[in-house]
Amino acid sequence: MSSDQALSMNSMDQAKTINQCLLILNEYEEWENYEEGGTMMHRVLQPYFALSGYKLRAEPEVANQHRFDLVGDNILKGDDRILVDYKFNREGSPRSLIPSAILEFVTNLSPSDVSRVIMVSPEGYDANMAAVSTRTAGPRLELWSFDEVKERLVRLRDSQPVEDKYVELVLDFVDKLALAIAHEELDLRRLEWREVERLVAHVLAELGYATHLTEGSNDGGRDVVVVDVQQSGTPVFNIEVKHWTSAKVGKKEVKRVLEVALRERRDGAVLWASSGAGPTAIEARSESQVDYLHFADGNKLSMACRSFARKRGGLWSGIRPFQSFILDSSD
C-alpha cells in the first residue's frame, strides 16, 4: 500500500485494511521460512506506517552498511523519520542480538537528526537487549514484538475519527464560509485567523488534495499539510497561514517557513498571507528557492473558494497538480 492510497481511504476502508493486517499476524505461526516471514511482515508493517501518516520510500535504504526494510517520513507531524528493520525467526523466544551496525548508527545520530530506528521481531527482544538498547541508544531505538504491533494496529483502528454532530456542524459552517466568499457575500477580513486556517484546509481537501490541519497556534511554521495524492511520488507541502488584515509578511516569516519545510523534507511550501508578501519577504526568498516557496494571498483564497463553489455546482474542470494550482493566477 502506498501513502497516497492510505491517505485517500475513508475510515471504513482503513479499518478493513487494519483487520486484514491483524489476521495476517494471527497466522504467523504458519509462515514456513525466513523469506516468507519477511514478505508477510512487510504486508503488515507497510500498511500500518502508511495509515499512520508516513510517506514510505519506494526502495529500502542502507545506513552504516545496514539495509533497512522500510524508511519513511511523517507527512502529518513532521520532525519524525523512521528506519524499520524486521527479523523473522521461528525460535519461539525473544531475540538476543541487535546488530552492531544499528547500535552504532543510532548512537551517532546528531541532536538535530529526527531519525529513529524500529526493530520488529515475533517475540521481541530479551531483557538484556532491551537494557543495552536503553543504555546505548535511548528512545531513538525501539524494539517491538508482534504483540506490540497488534496493540498499535488496534489503537490505530479504534482511533479513527467519528463524524459526530460537532464535526458535522463545523464542516457545515466552513462550507458556508467558502460559498459566501466565493459569491462575494462575505469579506475575508472579517474572519478570525483559525477560521481562515480551517477554510484553507477544507477548500483544498474538497478540491481533491489530502490535507491535515495542525493543532492551534503552536504549529511551528506550518498550519496545513497538503499531500498531492494524484501526483507521482505523492509530493507533500507545508502551508503557513498569516491572516493579517493590513500588515504584509516579511523576512522573518519566510525564514521560518523555509526552515521547517526543509527540515521536514517537504517538496515545497506556501506562505499564505491574507495581505500578501512585503518586499523583505520577496527578497528573503533566494533565486534557488523560487520554485520551492510560493506566496499566496487573500485573492488566491477567494479564487480557491470560487473553484470550490464551481465543483459544488458541477462545473469544475478537475484536480490539478498542487504547484500549478498555487501558481495559477486565474480561476
TrEMBL record:
Keywords recorded for this protein, A-Z: Endonuclease, Hydrolase, Nuclease
GO annotation terms (biological process): DNA restriction-modification system
Record-linked InterPro entries: Restrct_endonuc-II-like (IPR011335), Restrct_endonuc_IV_Mrr (IPR007560), tRNA_endonuc-like_dom_sf (IPR011856), Type_IV_Methyl-Rstrct_Enzyme (IPR052906)
SUPFAM superfamilies: Restriction endonuclease-like (SSF52980)
Protein name in UniProt: Restriction endonuclease
Keyword set includes Nuclease: yes
Nucleus as UniProt keyword: no
Domain Restriction endonuclease type IV Mrr as annotated: residue spans: 188-301
Domain of life: Bacteria
Gene3D superfamilies from the UniProt entry: 3.40.1350.10
